[in-house]
């Protein structure tokens, strides 16, 4: 995403928060009073007003109803979602990542976007868009790196990751790129930035044979999920569906190696790639 569009996006989020504060003040309500009316805490309202937190569509609609604002918060929210530099089907999930308190991911074939190095992301982008311009590739990689910045923020979510061993064995970008990618993952595990486990190939069938799965929990709204194939994705917000997805993730966790054994497997794969890179 270009610098100008980033600045515009941030300015519009600030507009959303400023408008919320002005409408609340005009009615003489405190943040706690408004929060009770839309089923969130007063502190959460304060974070929205300062653009520290990003709103959700459901909350935007409730605010329009309570504040009688003729749909302004919903319209601005939808405009901002359109500005996100992702495929249409992923935009809502990408936004939810930024406000999640916990993210649990299962990746069957590709390193999750929040963990990808720039070179790994570049290799994936070129493989899926072989005729893309260099500008498109660079914009895609930059967007991927910008998205991963939430893991460096002071308010970063608790992050759980389950990788299938296939992720370690497919040499995306070649041995040097894979060595760097796996070494970075191992370093982040050792820094306790995430908890990671691996499902060995020898396990055979597992609970999510259909594809990747992400679960997200939040401070003031119900949990949600996201699942994706190579061509489309789906946000999961129906409580029964989310509960089923959570059970699936529990089964995946049960099939995975313990964290220490998983880290050893990653280290071993990284060493193999590094050795191969030195001899080629």
TrEMBL record:
Classification via InterPro entries: Cro/C1-type_HTH, DUF5753, Lambda_DNA-bd_dom_sf
Domain HTH cro/C1-type, first and last residues per copy: 20-72
CDD domains for this protein: HTH_XRE
Pfam family, one: HTH_31
Source domain of life: Bacteria
Protein name, per record: Helix-turn-helix transcriptional regulator
Species whose genome carries this gene: Streptomyces lichenis
